[in-house]
Amino acid sequence: MQTGTVRFPEGLAYPYRWKCTQSVPKEPQTVGEHIKRRRLELHLFQSDLAKKLGVNVQSIRNWEKNTYQPIERLMTGIVKWLGYDPRKAVSLMTQAIHPEDNMGNLKLYPAYTV
């Protein structure tokens, strides 16, 4: 029985048991897709992330399938783990896709040159 890691041509080390066939969301539209994308980039299993965030693995599954959204109390840990707030990213994506729906919320700022 083999243990350890497997080396791929890119030089990245994967856990030996890592056999990911999931697709990585290129442009995440939901909080769950942001979580899934980052988890797959880090080559973490759902159970590993569940331990890091202190939740049940079923919560991770539900978020990634967009069955449920994380409750507000957990968002602090998720934002810290992701390194950004996915709710703001999703909001900006919505504004970029449907600017006509957000015209009343826009604030104009002067352009800065460097």
Account of the 3D structure:
The protein has helices at residues 31-41, 46-53, 57-64, 72-82, 86-97; strands spanning 5-7, 13-15. By secondary structure, the chain is mainly α. It has a domain at 27-97: lambda repressor-like DNA-binding domains (434 Repressor (Amino-terminal Domain)), CATH 1.10.260. A two-stranded antiparallel ribbon has the order 1-2. α1 crosses α3 (57-64) and α2 (46-53) packs across α3 (57-64). Mean pLDDT is 75; it is low at 1-11.
Walk me through the topology.
Blueprint: E1 5-7, E2 13-15, H1 31-41, H2 46-53, H3 57-64, H4 72-82, H5 86-97
Antiparallel strand pairs: 1-2
Helix pairs in contact: 1-3, 2-3
CATH topology of one domain: 434 Repressor (Amino-terminal Domain)
N→C terminal distance: 58 Å
Helix percent reads 40-55%
List the secondary-structure elements in sequence, H or E. Answer: EEHHHHH
Low-confidence stretches: 1-11
Question: What would the keywords be for this entry?
Answer:
114 residues, mainly alpha, 434 Repressor (Amino-terminal Domain), two-stranded antiparallel sheet, 5 helices, 44% helix, 5% strand
Can you give me a brief rundown of this structure?
The chain has 114 residues and is mainly alpha-helical.
